[in-house]
Amino acid sequence: MTGSQEKNSPLPFINLALPVMDEPELLPRLLDCLSAQTYRKFRLFVCVNQPDSWWLDPVKRKACLNNRACLDLLSKWDGCETHIIDRSSQGHGWTGKRHGVGFARKAVMDLVNAMAGPDELMVSLDADSVFSADFLGSVARNFSKNPCTVALALPYYHPIGSDPAANRAMLRYEIYMRHYFLNLHRIGSPYAFTALGSAMALPVWAYRAIGGMTPKLSGEDFYFLQKLRKFGQVLVYNKEVVYPEGRFSDRVFFGTGPAMIRGAAGDWSSYPVYPVALFDDILESYLLISLFYSGRLQTKISAFLSQVFNETDPFQPLRVNHRDLDHFTRAFHEKFDGLRILQYLKTTHDGHGSSDEGNLHDFLEREYPAEELKMLNVEWQTLSFSASPVGELEKIREFLFEKEMEARLTAIPR
Fold first, then answer.
1. 393 vs 386: CA distance, rounded Å
2. Could you list the residue range(s) of the whole structural domain that residue 333 is in?
3. In this structure, is residue 121 part of a structural domain?
């Protein structure tokens, strides 16, 4: 798109929301990506952040100085209009329990909300991500084609790096996430999307409609997208992909970095590859919604929700408040939401007694032709996430990525 075409383009203006903490080696790469964008209708909002107490902690002194370097780099960068929130300089950092990436992401999004028009877009980024020169243009065109969409959960792909241990942990985590997405998509869950802070976009009007982001120490992206999904349709396909760094990081409490750290130490208990039968339990509940509406029915899901909400019949309040099946169905999915789905899988998985590798193979064998799996040339009988060659894990990741992109494409609103 040429400069004159951009000026007259009906495509929406984009506001980039970026939290930064101790990332002086990654930030220049992201800024280079922004400078290379062919679509130029954007501006950048950044929150460089840390707890203020770090200035008095010798262990954290380097991170403080790195944040100072990030502020200096951003102040000199002239790639686009830039607004900087300084929550890292001494006396300006977070205090008390209000700190972390969730508060930083909310700070930049709230500033966007204060300055942007309702039809402009917010695109959430992280400093460790890269993307193609057409990335922002693809996002703008996507929302232009789907004006009623309340959010876009962008596809992602962690590139292979130079550290074999990090690669193994990253691939294992991606296999977990893609298996999770594909199963939720398979059963028709409204929550079939992946929440990554580096791969989210939404119109400003939707941000205002849901009352903005609820800050959390981490995991804010999961709750934010779930909140948006309860409000409207979340799009999951985009032509261009976000490429986050697969790295060991303890900057947040859960997510890719912490999962990789625990996984490399042999602990994947928080990110198991769930048995396909547990997703079938959820599918059964979806197929029985009309019977839940008609009266009390005992299933694994209704028993789980009874325990969670301490209600004999978890659907009785919904029947009282929603007098037709369509509204009851929506209320059902709002009650049995993405968080409750995850809780059900976690609480029922422990007693299942199957291995992660076996659960993955069971799913693949059931859902895809044997000829396709044979072409992968993976030794399924001896597959070990901790011991098999990293190349085998990479082949599995590539296969799942391909299938996920196909699934995302079929989810486009028609």
1. 10
2. 276-349
3. yes
Structure-block tokens of residue 159: 């590139």
Total of domains in the chain: 2
C-alpha Rg value of the chain to the nearest Å: 22
Number of H helices and number of E strands within the chain? 18, 9
From CA 233, how far away is CA 202, in angstroms rounded?
Answer: 11
Neighbours of 86 (CB within 10 A): 17
Question: Is this prediction's pTM over 0.90?
Answer: yes
Same domain (yes/no): 229, 293: no
Alpha-carbon distance 119 to 411, whole Å? 23
Q: Establish if 324 belongs to a structural domain.
A: yes
For residue 28, count other CB atoms closer than 10 A to its CB.
14
| Whether the Cβ atoms of residue 20 and residue 127 lie closer than 8 Å to each other | yes
Token pair 């909400």 in the structure block, residue: 309
How many other C-beta atoms can be found within 10 angstroms of the C-beta atom of residue 277? 12
CA-CA distance, 410 to 50, in Å (whole number)?
Answer: 41
Centre a 10 Å sphere on the Cβ of residue 375 and count the other Cβ atoms it contains.
11
Among 347, 188, 182, 180, smallest CA distance to 273 is for: 180
Instruction: Please report, in tens digits, the pLDDT of each residue of the chain (414 residues total).
Output: 444 444 456 899 999 999 999 999 999 999 999 999 999 999 999 999 999 999 999 999 999 999 999 999 999 999 999 999 999 999 999 998 777 888 999 999 999 999 999 999 999 999 999 999 999 999 999 999 999 999 999 999 999 998 998 999 999 999 999 999 999 999 999 999 999 989 999 999 999 999 999 876 567 889 999 999 999 999 999 999 999 986 545 555 545 656 656 666 666 677 899 999 999 999 999 999 999 999 989 999 999 999 999 999 999 999 999 989 999 999 999 999 999 999 999 999 876 668 999 999 999 999 999 999 999 999 999 999 999 999 999 999 999 999 999 999 998 765
Residue 231 lies in a domain: yes
| Residue 353 CB contacts under 8 Å (≥ 6 apart), including other chains | none
Asked if residue 360 is part of any domain, the answer here is no
177: three-class secondary structure by DSSP: helix
Phi, psi of 20 (to 5 degrees): -135, 135
Tokens representing 91 are 């006396």
Q: Which of 356, 414, 408, 343 is nearest to 157 (CA)?
A: 408
Would you list the DSSP string of 19-64? EESS-TTTHHHHHHHHHT-S---EEEEEEEE-BGGGGG-GGGHHHH
